[in-house]
TrEMBL record:
Transmembrane segments: none annotated. GO terms for cellular component: nucleus. This is Zinc finger, MYND-type. SUPFAM superfamilies: SET domain (SSF82199). It comes from Lasallia pustulata. The keyword Metal-binding applies.
Length: 426
């Protein structure tokens, strides 16, 4: 199956389950591939055309892209479709057939592009990212000026915003409103464990405290019921953490934990790249700790220089991503810091060849996720009314779709490869 079609089908699956945020990410990648099909200078142009051509002609090799598969960058080992057949006996007949095939493939790509613009705008609107949704309607209308469906979606976005504004302020005046800049773009999505997530551990098992705090004092490790004011006391409250079961003298160190999952959003600030502590002052006798391959990346000590080499730094060494997410405007500071933490988690996962949710730093984090209502997931309401369930997780197209894809590409991760999908989707 061509990757654009695969992503479109995955979009339909996540959308039908009521996850417009995941569907938006899938269909955006599909849109990128349709751009590649129409851009002869695109990095994936030949691969996309070949994959679409083989699928159209019913070939057994479906041409899914994976740039790491072979020297040509194709899964089947063939050169990209070039528009001409070699060693042709019939000459012009074969050339006409190839031209006709390429024309048909381009028409498929164009149809997929229109559908992708429409689906992307609808899903972003469902997430509450109205400005990004409106922008993709504008882009789509520029590419497809006769597409009435994009205009209908654009009008629905404006109507949704108008209704919201009038509910907040009945005197709201639309005359000075500019949708390109004034539409809201900070949305929210469902904060829940995806049904296909097999990485989340049982945080309340008897082995979890032993695994997470093997060196903690015994008085800090034993499960303890929480004190409540209810009478009779509730017996169903569960919490995971360190609870003091004996008096701790003032000044005693309760917990010391180091983590490589750190970030700071101050560009060119003298902080350790590994632990984010302040760097020691430089003196004539001091020894700076910097990566030999990218000396702008500095550390505070020998251990902080050594540990990243086996845990995260090779994935980003020399990749020029230091400035991403740093020195951002104040309104974006929280999103930017989250993005930097995401970058570090991806670098940890790439270097250690593991799933980001299986990292030591992330596996036992508590994100206040809820288990989904399986009945709702498989009901017609999931796709038809994605806003009918509580949504507490902030979401934006820029920080949750665009920037993560950009960083993965900076890390030389093929975001269209089938092998990348299970690791980073959901």
């Amino acid at each position: 199956m061509p990757p654009a079609n695969y992503l479109a089908e995955q979009h339909d699956a996540t959308n039908n389950l009521g996850f417009p945020d995941l569907a938006a990410g899938d269909v955006y990648r599909a849109l990128l591939l349709t751009d590649e099909a129409q851009d002869e200078s695109g990095e994936y142009h030949g691969q996309v055309l070949e994959a679409l051509s083989e699928a159209r002609n019913g070939g057994r090799e479906e041409g899914q892209m994976n740039g790491a598969c072979n020297g040509n960058g194709h899964t089947n080992g063939h050169e990209p479709a070039s528009g001409k057949k070699k060693n042709s006996e019939n000459g012009s007949d074969d050339e006409s057939e190839v031209e006709g095939n390429n024309s048909a493939v381009q028409q498929i790509a164009i149809a997929n592009a229109l559908e992708s613009y429409q689906k992307l705008a609808q899903n972003l609107a469902h997430c509450g990212c109205l400005r990004s949704a409106f922008d993709f309607c504008q882009r789509g209308s520029k590419a497809f000026p006769k597409a009435s469906s994009l205009n209908d979606t654009r009008q629905a976005i404006l109507a949704t915003n108008r209704e919201t504004q009038l509910q907040r302020d009945p005197s709201w005046d639309e005359s000075s409103f500019d949708p390109k800049t004034d539409l809201p773009d900070e949305g929210s999505v469902r904060r829940e464990l995806y049904p296909w997530n097999t990485h989340d551990p049982d945080r309340f098992s008897a082995t979890t405290p032993k695994r997470r705090a093997p060196k903690s004092p015994p008085q800090m490790r034993r499960p303890t019921p929480l004190l409540t004011s209810s009478n009779p006391p509730q017996t169903t409250i569960q919490q995971l953490g360190l609870f003091a079961t004996a008096d701790i003298p003032p000044g005693d160190v309760v917990l010391t934990e180091s983590s490589l999952l750190t970030a700071n959003n101050r560009h060119l600030h003298p902080l350790c790249d590994a632990c984010s502590r302040d760097l020691p002052p430089l003196t004539p006798s001091s020894h700076p700790y910097a990566c030999p391959s990218c000396p702008d990346t500095v550390f505070c000590s020998a251990p902080c220089l050594s540990l990243p080499q086996t845990h995260y730094h090779p994935a980003i060494c020399g990749k020029d991503i230091d400035a991403l997410g740093k020195n951002t405007p104040a309104p974006d500071a929280v999103n930017a810091l989250y993005l930097l933490l995401l970058f570090r988690a991806v670098a940890l996962a790439e270097t250690q060849a593991t799933h980001p949710l299986d990292l030591r730093e992330t596996k036992y984090l508590w994100g206040d996720f809820v288990h989904p209502d399986r009945g709702y997931l498989h009901s017609a309401s999931a796709a038809a009314e994605p806003l009918s369930v509580a949504r507490h997780l902030p979401f934006s197209f820029r920080f949750n779709v665009l920037a993560p894809l950009h960083v993965l590409e900076k890390m030389d991760v093929d975001v269209f490869a089938p092998t990348a999908l299970p690791r980073y989707d959901g």
